[in-house]
UniProtKB/TrEMBL annotation, chain A:
PANTHER family: GLUTAMATE SYNTHASE [NADPH] SMALL CHAIN (PTHR42783), GLUTAMATE SYNTHASE [NADPH] SMALL CHAIN-RELATED (PTHR42783:SF3). Pfam families: Fer4_20 (PF14691), Pyr_redox_2 (PF07992). NCBIfam families: gltA. Keywords: Oxidoreductase. Signal peptide: none annotated. Its EC number is 1.4.1.13. Residues 19-129 form the Dihydroprymidine dehydrogenase domain. One of its GO terms (molecular function) is glutamate synthase (NADPH) activity. The gene is gltA. This is NADPH-dependent glutamate synthase. Residues 142-448 form the FAD/NAD(P)-binding domain. InterPro entries: DPD_II (IPR028261), FAD/NAD-bd_sf (IPR036188), FAD/NAD-binding_dom (IPR023753), Helical_ferredxn (IPR009051), SudA-like (IPR006004). It is an enzyme of class 1 (oxidoreductase). It comes from the Bacteria.
UniProtKB/TrEMBL annotation, chain B:
CDD domains: DHOD_e_trans_like1. Signal peptide: none annotated. PROSITE patterns: FAD_FR. It holds the Pfam family DHODB_Fe-S_bind. Transmembrane segments: none annotated. This is Sulfide/dihydroorotate dehydrogenase-like FAD/NAD-binding protein. InterPro entries: Cyt_c3_hydrogenase_gsu (IPR012165), Dihydroorotate_DH_Fe-S-bd (IPR019480), FAD-bd_FR_type (IPR017927), FNR_nucleotide-bd (IPR039261), PyrK_electron_transfer (IPR050353), Riboflavin_synthase-like_b-brl (IPR017938). It comes from Agathobaculum hominis. Residues 1-95 form the FAD-binding FR-type domain.
Length: 464, 283
């Protein structure tokens, strides 16, 4: 008999006014009992509607059935059949618009907590599995991966398992991409990401850090070094600024800079040599996951007042529901229908405030969302000492500018077919944010996976 | 790991190091820079590529110990390794079509100007090198500079070596004396570069400056290095570090450079305390 409780088994978490002062993980994860209880809410539907919402088709009902039976390691193996990073995706996937939004239990109550179960299973396996990955026998072919984000890591893992000699080139001093430099510790502990990277090393993947493709070597030079196919998963790391006067004042950050200083460069640790503004009043402009992360970091760095300044209404916020909920609980104040007009600063060029304008919603625009239009005479000023721009990123132009024959579109994204990641340049495959623009971890992973299969086929055909 | 193959003290707080970094040496060009981390916990700091040797796979850096990270770097010795060393970053300097240039270096800027002067000199360009220092004690690379230019003008603030003058005075005299420069290349503290630009502006001489803004990644990812050039926002790490000095908004760039003064001081204090503790333990 399934558990007919209309609500998800709640996730234990740190109390809001405790956690907004530390960088420890906010949610604490299910216990085995909780996981079994929640798994019993699944009806094991024959037509598996939940799976249609998962970009990598995790075998959801099957793994959940194993959880219900207490077979956690088997459940982990089931997930691993299609997903490379379940401990990450269980934590950061926007489940409410992917797998869980198709769950039949969601019709009359809350969906099955697929993400939380996935996280539980992956954490359990990490802590309890004794199996160590072994490097498969080499097939003698070398492939290169550019960028060690979720797209590149997934592609590298799949190719290594097929026997390829895989080298990952990463510009930063740490592999992991946004998982390491962007998403904060309190949402995705770095030890978990590191563990995934270590697994790849066990599989024989070689990581060359501090290597900027396009500068240290170009794509063409990598081919010259003997790589037979190259996957580009360089992400969309170029920040967009707001485009209002005063934006170069001291105390204005891109979310990338703010988060990189905190996460990658550990500015949140006492005694860190990485400087950062310990601002007291902070406004974050934007409404996505990046904005929520920046706002919640600001709170943890000691800010008394933190605002989210967003042009549209609450309904349009693109961030994961859980992050919005957590941000509110932690004391972040949302200013909806508010657009920034100017960053104000004092004679020393330090930020003193943000001049804003009230908006109202007009007709739907091309994206189907109602377009915000300014309300006349509604200008007002928020007093601040820090402004963080989190209004989007686009692919870095470095690879585009140094790779002749690689087609990109108007937005600077690499043109690649979704099915295989094939680009306009022979032997070059691409996927993740570098192709789609800023998207999600699971989409990047899926693209890396499909490209790995296509690269395998490409190399086999070439060597026929 | 990136090993320190050679360490040389140029003056009290200026050091030269030759680092084993074949990936960087393979493609390095004058005007480009690297970013390094001394240790696993260290911050990322940019330094100009002062010289390179493709054959031996080495990069030369010259740095002044101004704060916590450069002090930590200066404390390392030959045989020690740097944790991270990435490059070459930034655009290489563009010298095409120059027949005669004035290279103006201020203090440590001379060390950075030196490879540029050398490259120009090797290209057959006539180079007037104007090197300004505070006093005789801190003059660096005098012999190297001599060999990298047509005419070397050394000036000091206190007259203890060469002339007692400012680099801008010398530059103005040379221009007024009828020297026809295709370009002036100014490298040094921002305030010096600003005044060089003010000196050349009335003459309409193209003036190239090398902007040492605060940086994190050096790949165009954070935007921390942004500055205003000709009314537009540019990223020094990817659009530069060289810019047309007559278009740079120096005042805002200088204020951004001072952004973390208080925290940088605290980092030095921490480092000194740590070193003292360490000394006590060793005793
Ligand atoms: C703060 C933040 C929060 C987010 N939260 C979520 C979330 O909750 N859920 C979710 O699903 N998604 C989230 N995202 C989006 C998600 O992280 C990205 O969609 C995903 O990381 C894209 O993966 P990727 O592998 O394509 O690129 P990235 O993760 O960006 O990795 C690209 C890597 O390539 C490297 N690189 C770039 N250029 C070069 C070069 N020339 N040479 C060598 N290396 C290079 C970069 O340094 C980087 O390590 C968030 C993003 C941010 C910034
Ligand atoms: C492209 C470029 C090339 C450079 N080349 C050289 C060089 O060849 N030799 C040399 O001695 N110095 C060079 N610098 C400056 C050098 O990076 C700084 O002196 C160094 O970062 C200071 O760090 P610190 O911790 O020792 O001192 P701090 O006390 O932290 O800083 C002293 C001053 O250095 C600047 N600074 C601090 N952190 C950074 C950072 N992360 N990035 C850039 N500037 C920073 C600030 O203006 C600060 O006020 C260059 C800077 C740039 C941007
Ligand atoms: S990978 Fe993401 S979308 Fe797929 S089942 Fe897991 S949480 Fe849901
Ligand atoms: S739709 Fe929901 S209830 Fe049905 S199998 Fe999927 S998770 Fe279980
Ligand atoms: S240093 Fe980060 S964008 Fe230039
Ligand atoms: Mg410092």
């Amino acid at each position: 008999m399934p558990n007919m409780n209309p609500k998800k088994c709640p996730m234990p978490e740190q109390a809001p006014d405790v956690r907004n002062k530390n960088f420890d993980e906010v949610t604490l994860g299910y216990t085995a009992e909780m996981a079994v209880e929640e798994a019993q809410r699944c009806l094991n539907c024959k037509n598996k509607p939940c799976m249609t919402g998962c970009p990598v088709q995790v075998k959801i009902p099957e793994f959940i059935a194993l959880v219900a039976e207490g077979k956690f390691l088997e459940a982990a193996a089931k997930i691993k059949e299609t997903s490379a990073l379940p401990a990450v995706c269980g934590r950061v996937c926007p489940q409410e618009s992917q797998c869980e939004c198709h769950c039949v239990r969601g019709i009359k109550g809350e969906a099955v907590a697929i993400g939380r179960l996935e996280r539980f299973v992956a954490d359990y396996a990490r802590e309890n599995s004794t199996e160590k990955p072994v490097k498969p026998a080499s097939n003698g072919h070398r492939v290169a991966i550019v960028g060690a984000g979720p797209a590149g890591l997934t592609c590298a893992g799949d190719l290594a398992r097929m026997g390829y000699e895989v080298t990952v080139f990463e510009a930063l001093h740490t592999a992991g991409g946004v998982l390491m430099y962007g998403i904060p510790e309190f949402r995705l502990p770095k030890a978990i990401v590191q563990k995934e990277i270590d697994t790849l090393k066990d599989l024989g993947v070689e990581f060359v850090l501090n290597f900027v493709v396009g500068r240290s070597e170009t794509i063409d030079e990598l081919f010259g070094d003997g790589f037979e196919a190259i996957f580009v998963g360089s992400g969309a790391g170029l920040p967009t600024f707001i485009g209002v006067p005063g934006e170069n004042a001291n105390g204005v950050y891109s979310a990338n800079e703010y988060l990189t200083r905190i996460n990658l460069m550990k500015a949140y640790k006492e005694n860190s040599d990485t400087p950062i503004y310990h601002a007291k009043k902070v406004a974050v402009v934007g409404g996505g996951n990046v904005a929520m992360d920046a706002a919640r970091c600001a709170k943890r760095m000691g800010a008394d007042e933190v605002y989210i300044v967003y042009r549209r209404s609450e309904k349009e916020l693109p961030a994961r529901l859980e992050e919005i909920h957590h941000a509110k609980e932690e004391g972040v104040v949302f200013k909806f229908l508010t657009a920034p007009l100017e960053v104000l600063s004092d004679e020393n060029f330090n930020v003193t405030g943000l001049k804003c304008q009230q908006m109202e919603l007009g007709e739907p625009d091309a994206s189907g969302r109602r377009r915000p239009i300014p309300v006349e005479g509604s200008e007002f000023v928020i007093d601040l000492d820090c402004v963080i721009a989190a209004i989007g990123t686009s692919p870095n132009p470095l690879i585009r500018h140094t790779t002749p024959g690689l087609e990109t579109n108007r937005k600077g994204c690499i043109v690649a077919d979704d099915e295989h990641g094939i680009t306009s340049k022979d032997g070059v495959f691409a996927g993740g944010d570098a192709v789609t623009g800023a998207a999600t971890v699971i989409l990047a992973m899926g693209a890396g996976k499909r490209a790995a299969a296509a690269m395998d086929e490409y190399i086999k055909n070439k060597n026929k | 790991m990136y090993q320190i193959l050679k360490k040389q003290t140029l003056n009290v707080n200026t050091k030269l190091m030759v680092i084993h970094a074949p990936h960087v040496a393979r493609k390095a060009e004058p005007g480009q820079f690297i970013i390094l981390r001394v240790s696993a916990e260290g911050e990322r700091i940019p330094l100009t590529i002062a010289d390179f040797d493709r054959e031996n796979g080495t990069i030369t850096i010259i740095f002044q110990e101004v704060g916590a990270t450069t002090q930590a770097l200066g404390a390392l010795n030959e045989g020690d390794c740097l944790h991270d060393f990435v490059g070459p970053l930034g655009k290489e300097s563009e010298f095409d079509g120059f027949k005669k240039v004035a290279v103006v270096g201020g203090g440590l800027g001379c060390a950075i100007a030196y490879p540029q002067a050398k490259k120009l000199h090797e290209m057959g360009v006539e180079v007037d090198l104007i090197a300004g220092f505070r006093s005789k004690d801190i003059i660096i690379l005098e012999d190297e500079m001599k060999n990298a230019c047509t005419n070397l003008h050394i000036v000091t603030d206190d007259g203890s070596n060469g002339r007692k003058a400012l680099v801008t005075q010398v530059l103005k005299e040379l221009i007024d004396a009828g020297n026809q420069y295709d370009a002036v290349i100014a490298i040094g503290p921002m305030i010096m570069m600003k005044f060089v630009c003010e000196t050349t502006r009335p003459y309409g001489i193209k003036t190239i400056v090398s902007m040492n803004t605060i940086m994190v990644d050096g790949t165009g990812m954070c935007g921390g290095c942004r500055l205003t050039v000709g009314g537009e926002t540019k990223f020094a790490c990817v659009d530069g570090p060289d810019f047309d000095g007559h278009l740079v908004d120096f005042d805002s760039a200088m204020r951004r450079g001072a952004m973390y003064k208080a925290q940088e001081k605290a980092a030095v204090a921490r480092r000194e305390e740590h070193c003292n503790l360490y000394k006590m333990e060793v005793k």
